[in-house]
Amino acid sequence: MARIRDVLQANLAADLPRHHPVEVQRTLGYRVRELRATPDWEHGDWPALLALARQAMQRADDLRAAATWQPTDHDRFVAGRTGPKLERATAPAGPAGPGPSWLERASRLVRAGTALAATADALPSADDGRPGPLAEVLGATALACAALRTSAEEIERLWRTEPREPADPEIWERARVPHALQVQTEETGHVVTAVAVFLWLLACS
After folding, report:
1. Among 66-70, 89-93, 135-139, which range has the highest average pLDDT?
2. pLDDT tens, 126-149?
3. 105, 144, 178, 200: which could join 34 in a potential S-S bond, CB 3.0 to 4.6 Å?
4. What span, in angstroms and rounded, lies between the C-alpha atoms of 88 and 170?
5. Which residues touch 43 (CB under 8 Å, ≥6 apart)?
6. CA quadruple 52, 41, 180, 142: dihedral positive or negative?
7. Bridge partners of 131?
């Protein structure tokens, strides 16, 4: 997986005189999105956010196994209502949807994160005033999804300002969505899928 040093060196090399096909030229915005999505970036290390979501799930499972946390009927209701929404957020892109497929996937994850944050905030706190195990899972997952928001908004704005729909959305997307951002989106989707399974098991417990 690329690190900040590798990305910076690649960007410097890209400035040397050489021919690039139009569809793969790197704009400043492209490079900023690449840095933002690169692990170890001090202003948003997304693998750390995904790790927190996984740890929250593991902690909830451990507490339940130890009978330290006993999910309430309300917890199960929330889990049963929220799980299917997450499954829809990570479903494959539609066969004939207009626009870049990455933007569709990323936007669904961002919207799912917003909904998760609201659901977590609405859950009652634990006896010590801190969020309960379920709220911690939902809140940590919401933060991981929110890490895609800025890039998704940028790409959507670029798409909407095109004078006409590009003939090949895939080429258009490739010129604006760095590989690091594709990886971030894919890995975030994997965690959201895992959370959906966690919620399904909780709802059925």
Report:
1. 135-139
2. 777 789 999 999 999 999 999 999
3. 178
4. 23
5. 36
6. positive
7. 125
